[in-house]
Sequence to fold (117 residues):
Amino acid sequence: MPNSTKEKVESFLNDFHTKLNVFSIVFVNREKNSQALLDLEITTEQRLEFIKNLKAEDYFNGPRQDANVPNSPPFWEFGINVKENEVYIKINFGKPNKSVMCISFHIAENKITYPYK
Fold:
């Protein structure tokens, strides 16, 4: 069962994309995120475009806190298909007047179930 209604997901994405266009995005530098760009043969610009094109149908979990990122806004989790690979994306709204954040963008380690597809 999803944590959010489709309307809440759409509202989050609308606000997220608006803030992204103003403050940009910070991608957390993690080995599996960097490796995903190589494995998927995509550029950092293409990765950004995938995030800009997220839809409520791509949602599967959130908002929820991440114990590894204390004092952070809640994270939302999405999945998309990139070159026949399911890609896991974990984003949040970032701090006030700062960039939005992408903590994960890598090939999914588990099967994703999409409540709104």
